[in-house]
Amino acid sequence: RGPSVGGIRLAEDLTLEEMSRLAYAMTLKNSAACLPFGGGKAGLVVNPALMAKEPKLKSELIALFAEALFPFDNYISAPDMGTTEYDIQHIYEFNSKMLGTDTHTRGGVGREPSHGGIPIDDWELTAHGLFTAIKTLEDLGYGIKLKGARVVIQGYGNVGAPIASKLYSEGAVIVGASDIKTGLWDPAGLNTEQLNRVRNTPGGLHNYHSKVDRRFNSNQVDWLLEAPCDILV
């Protein structure tokens, strides 16, 4: 259908199998949206927490990755877990330098708005797409009822936080949430407003102080994947 579009993911446990599966999912998404693109995905096996603490190191890594990606002229990059609009702008500027022009199709998607890009995170586009998919399943009668549905959010970040707020506004109960360091579980429901307040503070969800039934450290947060719920994000 055209060039491959997909995000660049930073994680310590990336595998080729996972990247292939994610690229396939992007193919389906772009096709469903009738976009003239195929699906793609790129990734770096690194510790995203370390990259967040060392912005200079991350900038150097992205610069090297931009150089490695340049020969693949059918891939258009985008932000994903661990990468931002600033990182994609960095790649775009490298491509501009190599091509000798600022006007080209070697994107990427989701660059800084000040440079003509789309603020994917600020507009909560990924979360909105996911919310729309869940609402559609409810409307089509696939057994999902948002009012009273128990929701677990693994990764309470730029996608997890807004999707939690959207589902909560429809009457769902956020019973579990986690970030890279802390997991929270309470069958009576977590306080979404407090989750949103603390998620960007130093320590993240560790600073959630309301009563919870269970609290986990970084080595145990995957328990939430097995927790009883109706919707797992």
Distance between the termini: 29 Å
What portion of residues is helical? 25-40%
**CATH top level of the largest domain?**
Alpha Beta
Discrete helix count: 7
The largest sheet has its strands arranged as: 8-7-6-5-9
Structural class by secondary-structure content: alpha/beta
CATH topology-level name of the largest domain: Rossmann fold
Which residues form runs of ≥5 with pLDDT under 50?
A: none
Q: How do the SSEs run, as a string of H and E? A: EHEEHHEHHEHEEHEE
Number of strands: 9
GO molecular function, one term: glutamate dehydrogenase (NAD+) activity
Domain Glutamate/phenylalanine/leucine/valine/L-tryptophan dehydrogenase C-terminal: 116-233
Domain Glutamate/phenylalanine/leucine/valine/L-tryptophan dehydrogenase dimerisation: 1-93
Keywords: Oxidoreductase
Describe the 3D structure.
- The chain is an alpha/beta fold.
- The protein has two domains: about 5-115, Rossmann fold; about 125-230, 3-Layer(aba) Sandwich (Rossmann fold).
- About 35% of the residues lie in helices and about 15% in strands.
- The chain has helices spanning about 15-30, 50-55, 55-70, 85-100, 125-140, 160-170, 190-200; strands spanning about 5-10, 40, 40-45, 75-80, 150-155, 175-180, 185, 215, 230.
- Strands 8-7-6-5-9 form a five-stranded mixed beta sheet. Strands 1, 2, 3 and 4 form a four-stranded parallel beta sheet that branches.
- A hairpin with a 4-residue loop joins strand 6 (about 175-180) and strand 7 (about 185).
- The longest helix is centred in the first third of the chain and has 17 residues, at about 15-30.
- The chain is globular.
- InterPro entries: Aminoacid_DH-like_N_sf, Glu/Leu/Phe/Val/Trp_DH, Glu/Leu/Phe/Val/Trp_DH_C, Glu/Leu/Phe/Val/Trp_DH_dimer, Glu/Leu/Phe/Val_DH_AS, NAD(P)-bd_dom_sf.
- Belongs to the Glu/Leu/Phe/Val dehydrogenases family.
- Keywords: Oxidoreductase.
